[in-house]
């Protein structure tokens, strides 16, 4: 039995992985923690506190665990793998990057910063629900829980992070994923896969950014095949 730790996107929560936890929980030990400021976890959100959440779970396990991460959670997983390499068996990294997309990311943060919080939540809810109407209220609740200030603070920390010089230190197998429709992140996924010593890049047909919600069975199957 393997251990899996799922690391959600900033602005989401551990319940975004409910389908994967239900499908894989009978075969494996599964953790879906809320990062600081998300779900039931008190804030504030900082990268250091987010990494500590994952690192604490890794420390509780007798052996190494697999980290499965989405979006901003990819940076958290990479930092945890660098902090405790002996505790990580492998990485599944989707929609993330080793560094922010320069001016594009800065412009995105400025635009989001100009939006009233309610408008920001409404604007991002569809993406954070994976386009599924039945999950939109859950996504909106998660975004409101973190709040505009916490969300922008998290994006700001990601914007200042550059892990490219450190990727060679992550020796475990990695599967780097990016949705076909998540076009702006495809070059960043390629760069991430190129920088990791033992990584495969896979572009997922028909998928967007938070595709574990869009295609839950396919995402689960991808994780299961990787760890077995």
From TrEMBL:
One Gene Ontology cellular component annotation held by this UniProt entry: membrane
Domain called AB hydrolase-1: residue spans: 4-220
Taxonomic superkingdom: Bacteria
Gene3D superfamilies, sorted: alpha/beta hydrolase (3.40.50.1820)
A GO term for molecular function: catalytic activity
Pfam families: Abhydrolase_6
SUPFAM superfamilies, per database record: alpha/beta-Hydrolases (SSF53474)
PANTHER family, alphabetized: HYDROLASE, PUTATIVE (AFU_ORTHOLOGUE AFUA_2G14860)-RELATED, MONOACYLGLYCEROL LIPASE
Protein name: 3-oxoadipate enol-lactonase
The species this protein was found in: Streptomyces indicus
Organism ancestry: Bacteria, Bacillati, Actinomycetota, Actinomycetes, Kitasatosporales
């Amino acid at each position: 039995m393997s251990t899996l730790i799922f690391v959600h996107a900033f602005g989401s929560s551990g319940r975004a992985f409910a389908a994967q936890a239900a499908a894989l929980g009978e075969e494996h030990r599964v953790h879906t923690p809320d990062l600081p400021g998300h779900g039931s976890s008190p804030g504030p959100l900082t990268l250091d506190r987010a990494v500590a959440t994952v690192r604490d779970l890794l420390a509780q396990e007798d052996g190494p665990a697999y980290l499965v991460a989405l979006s901003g959670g990819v940076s958290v997983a990479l930092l945890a793998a660098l902090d405790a390499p002996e505790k990580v068996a492998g990485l599944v990294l989707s929609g993330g990057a080793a560094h922010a997309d320069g001016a594009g990311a800065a412009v995105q943060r400025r635009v989001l910063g100009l939006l009233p919080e309610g408008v920001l939540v409404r604007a991002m809810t569809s993406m954070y629900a994976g386009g599924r109407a039945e999950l939109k209220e859950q996504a909106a609740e998660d975004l409101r829980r973190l709040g505009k200030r916490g969300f922008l603070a998290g994006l700001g920390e990601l914007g200042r992070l550059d892990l490219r010089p450190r990727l060679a230190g992550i020796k475990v197998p990695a599967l780097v994923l990016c949705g076909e429709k998540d076009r702006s992140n495809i070059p960043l996924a390629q760069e991430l896969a190129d920088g990791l010593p033992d990584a495969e890049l896979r572009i997922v047909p028909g998928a967007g950014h938070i595709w574990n919600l869009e295609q839950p069975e396919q995402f689960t199957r991808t994780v299961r095949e990787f760890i077995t």
